[in-house]
## 1
Amino acid sequence: MFSNIINKIRTKEDVYRLVDEIELLLVSLYENGPRGFNSTMGFGVRSWVSEILLSEIAKMDNKSPEEYLKSLREVLTGLESVNLTLAFEPSDKTTNKFSSYLQESTGKDVVLDISLDKSILGGVVISYRGIYKDFSIARLFNESSQTIEETIREKMGIRVT
Amino acid sequence: MYDFKTCLEKTQEVGYVDEIIYSLVYASGLPMVKLYEIVVFESGDIGQVFSMEVGSVKILLLSSMSVNVGDRIARTDEPLKIPVSESVMGRLLDPLLRPLDGGSAIESENPMSINAEPPQIMDRLEVKTPLETGVTMVDLVVPLSHGQRELVIGDRKTGKTEFLLQTIVTQARLGVTCIYAIIGQKKVEIQRLYEFFESRGVSNNTLIIASDSSSQPGLIFQTPYSAMTVAEYLLKKKKDVLVVLDDMTTHARVYREISLLARKFPGRAAYPGDIFFIHSRLLERSGNFKRGSISTLAVAESILGDLSGYIQTNLMAMTDGHIFFDIGLYNQGKRPAINPFLSVTRVGHQTQTSLEVDVSRELLSFLVTYEKMKQFLHFGAEVGKTVRNILNLGERIDIFFDQKEFVSIPININIFILSVIWSGTWNESKLEEVGRQIDFIINLYNKDRDFEKKVNDLIGTHLNFSDLINSIRRDQGLIPKNEHKFSTN
């Protein structure tokens, strides 16, 4: 029932934005004129959102639009998030790649909670359901720094007393 | 102590702060976290896992509150450990053994977990050695022993702390290591106690582990466990240890506060159901063992002399007796205000010599009779010679028990003086003069080695009280005379 719209959601920001639009639509159900449901559907929400919502609402037999929107809001706020820390701001393409990879590997509808931290230099730090995995360049550097240091010392003939 | 990033990399688990209620943090994540495990916040604060539910962990903050909602939390995969070493002696430390005296930090190669299991029954031994407090009433009527757990109970300002300090000083001078756990008291009081030990010259054998009333509730809660852990460390070094827990009612109140915040179901007087377990788990860690002993004096505060409070009766059930400081006796001017009739020692008598047992029995029996006679006098009745004799002796024994603050009296000289009083030597003397003579004999015993030896030999060669009294009656030369100050009517 919600798969069409959830498939379009990739990040936590997407969730917040969509939830805001749903809230607006829920309020508009009890308004007339320019603030009414139809006007809001036309001008108050993004076109692809209104398109999907209208087609889904049309498919329903007994449910009212209010019930549908409330259920959708509940599903959206209940979506699990995967925290990603990146050293750069990801493009749409990269976000899509991350999203589809994580949906596939977790087997669930998950959204990305992306934060920016340049100190990790590159790679990614992932945390999901309390599990923390650091695949950053900074960690690799830290891990190998001792080995590198020793190698440099060895090559330069410096002895540590 | 713990670095957030290092812990995160080590355990590969992260949690997020969802809610903060006073000193309790509700967090999500941390899937494999264990009960009582230490966790580190992004801000550097540390906390201890207090309870767990599906999808939520309740964490008790152990350091200052600079935690915010949304902060990350890392596991340490370790229970709360403290860096115990022999350098703790003479120090004033907080429950995590961080210095409060401005001294250097305590370092240890093998930190110890503060939530140790109590020793098993096969590791325990029967109590055999008496524990001298230097307080006449206790040493003669409610004797204590090494490895005993005794409750010290009484209203506020009835002399409990003075008794505890006197016991610590007496024991520290005898070479016993003493740990004073101050639970949630005023900072000024903590400083006063620290200076007291220094001024008495017993710092080398004493240690204060203190949390003040403004400390985090989690830290106050850990104070007695921390003190017991240090005691266990010293026990491993084959030492006899005396632990004073001042006081357990405050500890119970703090635990109640934490439990209510954690939405634990409240029971009697709003205390959580596991309050008995929390205290007994601690007190069971003391006892007499093959390596040494841990004696514990747990303090409980009563209200208006009521001994039937929830926490007070719990503590009575898990200790080997109690010493009751009576507000009524205190107001009458008795020092120490110990009520001998409501005080109990369950194992203390088994460590006494046959003479001490005999003295204790005779004395308690006499005190009961004396109390009855005093009640009888309230009716304004005319009294016969026997009653007069009892009252006369009772008045002298009252003076004998009246002890100045922080003056420790060895048990042998106590028995000697009691025997002199009992023998009737001072029956005709004025009460003030009896007091002066008692002080003179105690001073002489502490200073004159010959007299000390004479008294010790006399006590050592008698097996019962009546023989001792007869010996004193026969040889009045045994009693030293304070010629300048002492005179008879």
## 2
Amino acid sequence: MRAVRCAACGAGSFPPGDWCRVCSSPDVSSWLLASEGRIEACAVFDGNAFAEIRLDDGMLVGGRIEPAERASVGARVRFAPRDGIVEFTA
Amino acid sequence: MSEVAIIGVGMTRFTRQPERSNQDLAEHAISAALSDAGVSQRDIGAIFSGSVRARSGNGQRCVKAMGFRGVPIVNVENACASGSTAMREAYAWIKAGLCDVALAFGVESLSSEPKGPLVLPRGNWMIDAGLTLPSWYAMQASRHMARYGLTREQLGSVSVKSRKLAQHNDVAHFRDPVTLEDVLASPVVADPLTLFQCCPKTDGSAAVVLASEAAARRLGATGVRIRATALGSGTAVFTDRPIEIPTARRVSIEALEKAGIGTEDLDVVEVHDAFSIGEIIYSEALGICPPGEGGRYAAEGRSLPGGGGVAVNTSGGLLSRGHPLGASGLAQVAEIVWQLRGVCGPRQVENARLGAVHTMGANEFELDGNICSVFVLEKAAHA
């Protein structure tokens, strides 16, 4: 999973784009995110778990959690991409 | 520069009324607001219409039979803050001298949409992965529980308080009181949020008439003064930098600073409780209680009129009055105007002089709250 890193202010932005989302500089380059992290906030609706995850490199990202019943604040998760959906396994 | 006053407010009952068209609902709210202000269509110099789900040209469609004579009509879509943003545009036009009396209204018909959470547009990576509005709010609740120890009972107490006040509000969607047990035993929507902690799909309209000070005097109208307004958008959530100040807080501070007051000067506020957790985090954002204390503030009854704090959502809020998206912001404004006029009966806050309206709009989840609108309203000195 990739993000961009800003050469001007050093911040990471996800999803990757043409500008830094923190300082608006266009001087960004692609960067491989850490593949593991910890759930900071999560909720389950209709069997679907969605979470905000603090990756081990400090980036906050959002994604689906499988299996849904293992989604809880503080749980460790690992990135496992599926069909274009950002998904993590708990 | 001229001050701007709200000289009239009006709304339909907020309820399930799918047989009524947007036009029918809006005509009712607009005529109520015009008559409340003591003005006629001829006095209105511009119209601002707020809706989220309506087809293009909704403002023109809604007022076409009312005899407005060709004045500018601007359609505003700004998610749940559409009505609030329409009012801010009316305010800005009067401030800029483009007109001296303006009408803002909001209208929405939601009850005929599919049951369950509001259907959000696909093609967004988070929505495609299964994120819904109740789950987004439930995520905020999970963070609050982990960080501050917010309890399920504190969350549920927001809905109990909301119904307790809404039974005295004859425009509210839900007017039957509920107990904490009822709230916690209602079906789980997105844990920890149960059904009674989620706003209903409501049909309704609300309208306000704004005037410059000079025009209000000419028309013999008494107004509630708009002391300050602030509107902001969210900043990026998914970075490795902490959000220095959440959008809901940043815009609140801006409005309070422009008004030259502190939160402690407010008597009554309406905040965006589309879900129970909303009232908690947005009360904190306005500074009504310290960060992390919103749950306790609600559970201890301090948000009630006479509860010893700033009264919150005396109308029953979005949870009980209902949430017809584009109309909600102006219904919030109507409640504060009624509070400042002292006409709220059993839900009245004694001697209310200063109030605030805090509206959020959210469905772009890469941003920390995609829209926040805050108004500070003040009882006219001679009223």
